[in-house]
Amino acid sequence: MKDQYKTKKQLLDELNDLRKRLSELETSKTPRRRMGEELREDEERYRALFEESRDAIMITTKEGKFVDFNKAAVDLFGYTKKEMAGMDVREFYVSVDDRLRFQKEIAKRGSIIDYEVKLRKKNGKEMDCLFTMAVRTKGKTILGYHGIIRDITEQKRVEELYRTVANSSQVGVYVSQKGKFQFVNPHVLDYSGYTKDELIGRDCLRLVHPEDRKMARRNAIEMLKGKRQAPYEFRVLTKDGRTIWMLETVTTIDYFGERAVLGNAMDITEERGARDKLEEAKLFESSILAAIPHAVIGLESRRIIFANDAVETVFGWKPDELIGKLTRIFYRTNEEYKEIARHFYPVLERQRTYSEEFPCRRKDGGDIICMVSTSRIGEILEERKIVVVYEDITARKRVQAELKQSFERLQMRLEETVNALASMTEKRDPYTAGHQQRVTQLACAIAKEMDLPEEQAKGIMVAATLHDIGKIYEPAEILSKPDLLTDIEFLMMKVHPDVGYEILKNIEFPWPVARIVRQHHERLDGSGYPDGLSGDNILLEARILAVADVVEAMASHRPYRSARGIKEALEEISKNRGILYDPEVVDVCLKLFKKKRFKFEPNSHIELHMR
Fold first, then answer.
1. How far is CA 196 from CA 156, 164, 181, 182, 190, in A?
2. Were 64 and a residue from 88, 166, 199, 574 both cysteine, which residue would form a disulfide, CB within 3.0 to 4.6 Å?
3. How many CB atoms lie within 10 A of CB 163?
4. Tell me, what CATH number does 336's domain have?
5. What percentage of the chain exceeds 70 in pLDDT?
6. What are 104-147's pLDDT values in tens digits?
7. Within a domain: 610
C-alpha cells in the first residue's frame, strides 16, 4: 500500500492534524466549498490536423454523400473541391462487389482498419487503396462515416519487385525505413520465428539482443557511411526465446522515393558456438569476479573449486580452507543441505539461474540468512560448472521485520481513530445510529458481487464507514428534528459532503476516500449535489455508495417519517435505474436482495481494517 512508504513521523502528524480538525469543526459554523474546473475542446487544433494530413480524410452521411473532406482527398481523386462536394463515395469504387463487401464489414464491426480496395480517379486510372473507416453516431443513431484513404499503388508495385528478388535469396533479406521493417523475405521469418504481420512496421532492433543493440546500430551506421567494409555480428532473440547469432551487411536503397536500408543477414549460430566453447574458461573466471562483493564460490561435481575473499566476511572461512570441500559446511543440517542441493540440479540440467532465500551457518556456529543465487557455466553437460553467490541479508530481514511491525502499529492507530470518527458521527444523531454500518454492509456486498479488486473494495469500505462524517458540523436539532426540514435546513444538510471532504482530503489514504465521500449524493443525470456531476464523472465507488445509502435510508426509520421498507427502496432504485443511479450497481443490488437474500445485520458494527 501507498502508506507503507511514509515515515512514522508523517503518520503521527496526520493523526494529530485529524484530531485538531475535529476539534475545530465541532465548534465551527462556516461550511467550506470548492469551485469546479471545466475542460474545453480545441477546435483549431482539430482543423489543423484535418487539413495538414498527407492522407485523404473524409466525412460522409450514412448514404455516402460527402459532408467534409480535406485537400489530400481532392488531390488523390483529381476532382475539384466543388465537384467532390456533390459526389458520393460509392462513385469511386471500381467493383460493386468491393463496395458491398466493405459496407457489410463496417455494418458488422462498426469500424474497419486497412481495408484494401480498388478505387478510380477522375481520369479513370485505377489505384490500390487502404481504407480505415468508422461509424459516426449520436446516441444509437448512425449519422454517417468518417475515415482515411491511402494510395498504396506504388508501394505494392515496389514490394512485388523486392519480393521477387529477395525470395530467391538464400539468406535473410529485409528493407527498413526509419528503423522499421517494410519488407522481409521468408528466410527472415524462418530464423526469427515471427510472422510477416508481426514484423512489418515494427522496430528492427526488437529482434536484436538488448546487450547488442547499441553495437549493432553503430556498426550499421558505419557501413552505410562507407566507414566499414566487413560484415558485423550480433545476437538475435527469436520469438520462442532462443538466442541466435547473425552476420549482417547493409546498404542504402531508394524505397518509395525515400532513403531506406537493404539488409542481408546470415545465421552463424553454429560457427559462434564453436568459438564460445574455447572461451568458456575465461567466461567462468570473469563471471566469478563479477559477483564480488558477496561470497562467491565455484562448484564442479558438487565440490568447491573457487572461493573469493568475501567468503571470509560472510562465513568466516578463508578461501583456501574451502577448496575441495562440499558446500554442506555452509548449512545447518543435512536435510537443509539436501534441500538446497535439489535446486542446484535443474540449474545444471535445464535452467541458467536460480535464486532463493535460505538459512545458512557461519564457521563460528552463528546462524544467518542468505540470498543464494546460482548460475550455470557451460553448455556441455559433463563440463558444466556452477557459480553460487551468497548474499548475507540477515540484517536487512531484521530491519524489514521491525519496520513492518512499526508500520502495523501506526496503521492500527489510524484505524482506531477513523473508527472513532465514524462512531462519533452516529452518536451525534441517535435516529440514524448504525446507518453508516448498514450502508457499509450493503456497499461492501455490492463491491464483492461486482468482483471488484480487493484494494478498490477496501476503499469503498473506508468511504462508506465515513460517508456521513460531515454531519458532525450539522446542529443536533436539525439531525433529530421530527418534522420535515425547511428549505434552509435542507440546504444546511446538503453541506455535509463538503465538510466530510474537507476533513478527509489531506489524509493520504491509498484510495480516493475524500472524493468518494464528496460525491456520494451525486446522481447520474447531474441532479445531485454538491457539484452536479454526471455519468462517468462520478467515481464508481461513489455510485455504489449512493445506491447503498438510498436503499438503507428508505428502509430505515427517520425522525420525520417511519421506515418505508426494503420493497419501496428497491422500487426507487429500479424506477431510476440509469437515470439517477448506475444501472450495473442497481442490478447487482437487486440481485443481492431478491436472489441472494441479503439482509442488514441488526446491531452489526463493521470495524475498519486497512491491513
1. 15, 16, 10, 10, 10
2. 88
3. 15
4. 3.30.450.20
5. 80
6. 888 888 888 888 889 999 999 999 988 888 887 777 777 888 88
7. no
257 and 290 assigned to the same domain: no
Nearest Cα to 155, choosing from 193, 189, 123, 116? 116
User: How many Cα atoms sit within 13 Å of 367 on the Cβ side?
Assistant: 5
Read off the pLDDT band of 13 (50, 70, 90): very low
For residue 185, pLDDT over 50 is answered with yes
Distances 273 to 269, 380, 492, 528 between C-alpha atoms, Å: 6, 11, 81, 72
The mean-pLDDT minimum among 374-383, 432-441, 454-463, 475-484 falls in 374-383
Strands (E), 213-328: 232-237, 243-255, 258-267, 295-300, 303-307
463: cell is 468511504
pLDDT tens figures, 215-261: 888 888 888 787 777 788 899 999 999 999 999 888 888 776 678 88
Q: Residue 284 has which C-alpha cell?
A: 567462468
End-to-end CA gap in the chain: 9
Q: What is the DSSP string of 531-595?
A: S---GGGS-HHHHHHHHHHHHHHHHS-BTTB----HHHHHHHHHHTBTTTB-HHHHHHHHHHHHT
Q: How many domains are contained in the chain?
A: 4
The residue out of 102, 122, 151 marking a domain boundary is 151
Neighbouring-strand partners of residue 146:
59, 134
Structural domain ending residue among the three candidates 151, 166, 191: 151
Q: For residue 534, what are the CA distances in angstroms to 526, 544, 591?
A: 4, 14, 25
Contact between residue 424 and residue 472 where contact means Cβ atoms under 8 Å apart? yes
How would you label 133-154 residue by residue, b for 16+ Cβ within 10 Å and e otherwise?
bebbeeeeeeebbbbbbbbbee
Whole-angstrom distance, CA of residue 600 vs CA of residue 297: 64
How do residues 423-439 score in pLDDT, each as one tens digit? 777 676 665 557 888 99
- What lies within 8 Å, CB to CB, of 573 at 6+ separation is 547, 550, 551, 581, 586, 589, 590
Helix segments in 350-475, DSSP class H: 394-427, 435-449, 454-466
Quickly count helices (H) and strands (E) in the chain.
24, 15
The CA distance from 24 to 12, in Å, is 19
Same domain for 493 and 455, yes or no, is: yes
CATH of the domain at 484: 1.10.3210.10
Strands 303-307 and 353-361: unpaired
User: Are the C-beta atoms of 503 and 33 separated by less than 8 Å?
Assistant: no
Q: What is the pLDDT of residues 568-599, one digit of tens each?
A: 999 999 999 999 999 999 999 999 999 999 99
